[in-house]
Design brief:
Structural class: mainly beta
Distance between the termini: 13 Å
Radius of gyration: 19 Å
Strand content: 35-45%
Number of strands: 13
Shape: globular
Helix content: under 10%
Largest sheet: 9 strands, antiparallel
């Protein structure tokens, strides 16, 4: 099952689209970076080519072999966040037809939760009862006149959609890094099984960002220095592709960062 997550920007930054139906369910959207599977029990398991993600205070540590990446912050610019009903092919501009529920138009800056924080709720809305199976949003690079207010509030994100800070260690040699990306891409993540929204019931969908896969080399055999994935550098396209492939969404009413419908399978 393919599916983004960490600390979120102030809730006031989100524009809510509320349903007028008094019998609607309360639907919340959360973000997590908690891996789908628990960390490997020993470093010996890493020889099979799977990086592990563990916590260290308010940071997350990606480890593979003798190399580690300590991730201290991840910030993303998102916009046009929508949840689609099972029967809907595309959202349209017709008001009050309940084909898609809009969380946010944006752009909005969000911080992915790291360390011991399992999930952070981004926003809650009232949504009509029904089945929803797709979360659609855009990773957005602010640059146009339409983004002037956002850029004024967040000047470091002029032309930047993703910013990561931390420390890269290769065989004991450490270096701090700042990784930024101009990635601009629409994402549509399938929720399997579909999310059920029921009248008068609170339901949560969590977007996972699988950061453990972001900084693998093209062959998936070693970690790369995130600084080498900045614009124009050798690993730029590899990391962009891995970020786009790292997103997952799932039912998560207990807010533990794991899929409620598949935790025991």
């Amino acid at each position: 099952m393919k599916r983004l997550v960490g600390m979120i920007a102030p809730l006031a930054a989100f524009t809510l689209a509320a349903c007028s139906d008094s019998t609607a369910g309360r639907l919340s959207l959360a973000l997590t970076s908690r891996p789908a599977n628990p960390p490997a029990a020993s470093s010996a398991l890493q020889s099979f080519g799977a990086p592990t993600v563990s916590t260290a205070g308010d940071s997350s540590v990606i480890a593979m072999g003798n190399d580690t990446i300590v991730v201290r912050s991840i910030e993303l610019v998102l916009r046009e966040i929508e949840l689609k009903r099972v029967e809907v092919v595309e959202c349209d501009s017709v008001t009050d037809n309940d084909d898609c529920e809009e969380f946010e138009v944006g752009p909005v800056l969000v911080s992915v939760p790291l360390g011991s924080v399992a999930t952070e709720t981004m926003v809650s809305i009232l949504a009509p009862a029904g089945l929803y199976n797709r979360l659609k949003f855009e990773i957005h690079k602010p640059e146009s006149s339409n983004d002037a207010a956002f850029i004024a509030a967040h000047p470091d994100f002029n032309g930047v959609s993703i910013r990561v800070t931390g420390t890269y260690s290769q065989a004991g040699t450490r270096s701090d890094f700042v990784y930024t990306s101009e990635l601009g891409a629409e994402q549509e993540v399938f929720i399997d099984p579909p999310l059920t929204v029921a009248d008068g019931v609170a339901t949560n969908v969590t977007l996972r960002v699988d950061i453990g896969s972001w900084f693998l080399n093209a062959g998936g055999t070693t970690l790369v220095d995130p600084a080498t994935a900045n614009k124009g550098l050798p690993n730029e396209s590899v990391v962009k592709d891995r970020i786009q492939a790292s997103l997952d969404a799932f039912h998560d009413d207990d807010h533990d960062g794991h899929d409620d419908d598949n935790e025991h399978t």
